Amino acid sequence: MSAEYGLCDLAVVSLRDTEQESDSGMRGSSVNNSKFQADFSEDPRISASAFRYSNGTVKAGSSTDSAVSSEVKLCSVHESELDRYCSTEGRLVCSICVTQGSCEGHTVTQLAERATAVRNQLVDICEKMQLQALRIERFIQHTLSEKERTVQAEASIAREQVVAQVNAVREALEEEEQHLLEAVHREEERVEQCLLTQREHWSKALGTLSNARTSLVHTLTHSTDAMLVISNQEISDRIEEAEGVGNPKDTEKLNLNKDCRNSKLMLGLWASALLLGSSARGPAHLHFDERSVSPLLSLSSDCCTLTFLPKRQRQAPPNNSERFDSWPNAVCSHSISSGTHSWVLEVGTSGAFKVGVCYTSMQRKGPGNDTRLGYNTKSWVFSHYDGDFSFCHNGKNMTIAVVKRPTKVGLLLDWTTQTLLFYDPDTMSVLHTVSQAFTEPLLPACAVADQSISILH
User: Fold this and answer.
1) Domain range spanning residue 190?
2) Quick one: average pLDDT of 81-106?
3) pTM score over 0.85
4) What CATH code is carried by the domain that includes residue 291?
């Protein structure tokens, strides 16, 4: 388009012309190609013969002029022909309006020139529309069709992978189930055999004891003094025989070894199902109970972070019966006595911490083991101290080997199965599992003697 047409004030439709104009060969060259003319000829209001082309631009021809200008419009002020266009005011004007009237000094062009510019712009817009239509057709015919085939292929592969994974898990579960059921059956048979042996042994012992007693009673009741006196050997034999029977004693051999049901595979899948499924949930609004926080610790404003305090920073907090006064402990405000719950604590690089649970009845006053997490029958904790990790309960420490030092420790408490599980949330690896018949509501509990630990939500 020539520079003189840059003055047109048309509101040009914006089209995304992302392809090179060279694809069509339309813009900036002669536009008298058959396809473009055909597009125009399809519109009954426009005849292709109404256009003539010169130097790459479209100009109004005589046939168009006669069609459009069949009725001459006059200026309402000067009664002259409206043969000019005022770009400043955006309206048709006459020559007198330009020289003496309201449009004096405005940007004005001849009506024919303005019409030519408008036509050229419309041609450009139509060309762009045609290009856009071609792109849409190609997108529908090629891109979308190819995308549909690709999606169908990928979906088929995804379905095969899902089925393969589920089948692998199902096969592993079935094999593990069979293995565990057989292990439980063998253990049941072992215990039943032990019980049968014990029953037979003690039945014989009972007969022996009964015979010895009957013999002694007969000797006692039917012997004369002389016979009783000379029956020392017989009496001694019966007494020795009775004493040899011994006393029955219950042993671990008569109990089912519950380890026969343990399986790392089953434990991992069970924990993953609970942790990743919809059944697990953290205690609502879990935070530390400010009343329980030891004076050796500080509690953040959101009640989610415990920080060990150097001696110079410690202050005596208000006295409270719920407060741990000797060990750097704290418990949460939410007790657990049903359902499945999980929560995670950020332990960072702390060199001394404990995370776990305790009964609500655990003692809190004094320096004894009754108030020390992991050193009584009312608390179960995962502990880190002096570079070692361990599980602590009732004063017994079980060393736990970790492949990577965890910066977070997660806890999963399933009340239904009476199971407490410690895990690493970053690797989803199980650190330790506890099977315990909990008899009281439990509180999440922590201790920290280095840096800080925090509840994560």
Assistant:
1) 161-259
2) 90
3) no
4) 2.60.120.920
